[in-house]
Automatic annotation (TrEMBL):
InterPro entries: DctP_fam (IPR018389), TRAP_DctP_sf (IPR038404). It comes from Ciceribacter naphthalenivorans. The keyword Manganese does not apply. It holds the Pfam family DctP. CDD domains: PBP2_TRAP_Dctp3_4 (cd13665). This is ABC transporter substrate-binding protein. Residues 1-23 form the signal peptide. The lineage of its organism: Bacteria, Pseudomonadati, Pseudomonadota, Alphaproteobacteria, Hyphomicrobiales. SUPFAM superfamilies: Periplasmic binding protein-like II. GO terms for biological process: transmembrane transport.
């Protein structure tokens, strides 16, 4: 009888251990961009796979087939625990993330890895102190590639921009359009085709990737390219703080190796690749005009007040906006130099 009890106890213990070994934490991720978009297919999905890989399957990410809310609600969905992980654009909630302006400055870089990594480093040193992301675990703060002007009307030089109606999707981009003599037209990226095809807008502020993805190439036969981009867009990936805190220390340590700067670099790589593919798709269909040195001198003069104003906005969040901007440019130069080697 004792043998039977001992055997039964051993079997029960083995079953218990097996159950513990197979226990899995499933994190829900609310995604609002189409699954075919590079940001999902080549960034969010690989991130989910990496989380499962580094935790040896103990943590799995379930990317929901439909978003739990609009892009503007993404941050609060994570903060309030409606979803475990979300991503979005800071500018979709104007005034909430003042420090994001640092990553949206004009004339930064043509390399999304450089702007993203620099932005992350500045966030860690200066911007996190503003506590704008309290309630979540920040996994990545990054930017897309350089934003340029694409238009149905010719833009061979700076003077051709005047009076054109340009669709924008953010506060900084709105101010930039006004500063260069064009007329800003507000509208989400998903409405871009409609705005252009109906003549509500003559052109659009977009990175190369977005013109291609939203099938706008046949509507915009001209591109005016400015080194470093006329604008940028800041983005985030965040996890509910309580959910992060509930993960075992072993899993937190494992996931920490792939988020932050490593994840930000992957975002930059994704945007660089998508922009290159977008520009390639435009060959023979879009006429590219590069800003001349004279144009660049004018643009720097026109854009400096916007840069100064955005530095003041960042400072109003309780951090040193000027120091943050100086560091951003220094870090961009460092990463660009590394990429050139």
């Amino acid at each position: 009888m004792n043998v039977i009890y001992r055997l039964s106890g051993a079997i029960f213990g083995a079953m218990l251990c097996a159950g513990t070994a197979s226990a899995q934490t499933v994190l829900t991720l609310s995604s609002w961009v189409p699954a075919t978009h590079p940001q999902v297919a080549n960034f969010i999905v690989p991130m989910a796979k990496d989380i499962e890989r580094v935790t040896d399957g103990r943590v799995k990410v379930n990317i929901l087939p439909a978003p739990l809310g609009p892009p503007s609600a993404a941050f609060d969905l994570a903060k309030n625990g409606v979803a475990d992980i979300t991503y979005s654009v800071q500018g979709y909630t104007p005034g909430r993330f003042k420090t994001a302006a640092i990553g949206e400055m004009p004339l930064l870089s043509d390399n999304a890895i450089a702007t993203s990594v620099a932005f992350w480093r500045v966030y860690e040193k200066y911007l996190a102190a503003a506590h704008e992301y309290d309630g979540v675990k920040v996994m990545a703060i990054y930017t897309h590639g350089p934003g340029e002007i694409f238009s149905s009307k010719p833009i061979k030089a700076y003077g051709d921009i005047a009076g054109q109606k340009i669709r924008v999707g953010g506060v900084v981009a709105h101010d930039i359009v006004k500063s260069i003599g064009a007329v800003p037209v507000e509208g989400p990226s998903s409405k871009s085709y409609e705005l252009l095809s109906q003549g509500v807008a003559d052109g659009i502020f977009f990175p190369y990737e977005s013109v291609n993805f939203f099938k706008l190439i046949d509507l915009v036969g001209n591109s005016y390219t400015v080194p470093g981009g006329l604008y940028n867009t800041a983005m985030f990936v965040v996890m509910n703080q309580k959910k992060w805190d509930s993960l075992p220390a072993e899993d937190q340590a494992a996931i920490s190796t792939i988020i932050g700067e490593p994840l930000v670099r992957k975002a930059g790589e994704m945007w660089n690749k998508a922009d290159a593919e977008g520009r390639e798709a435009m060959k023979g269909k879009v006429t590219f005009h590069d800003a001349s040195e004279a144009d660049m001198a004018t643009l720097r003069e026109k854009l400096q007040p916007i840069i100064d104003n955005q530095i003041a906005v960042v400072s109003s969040a309780g951090v040193d906006g000027e120091a943050a901007y100086v560091m951003l440019k220094e870090e961009i130069a460092k990463v660009e130099a590394e990429s050139a080697q």
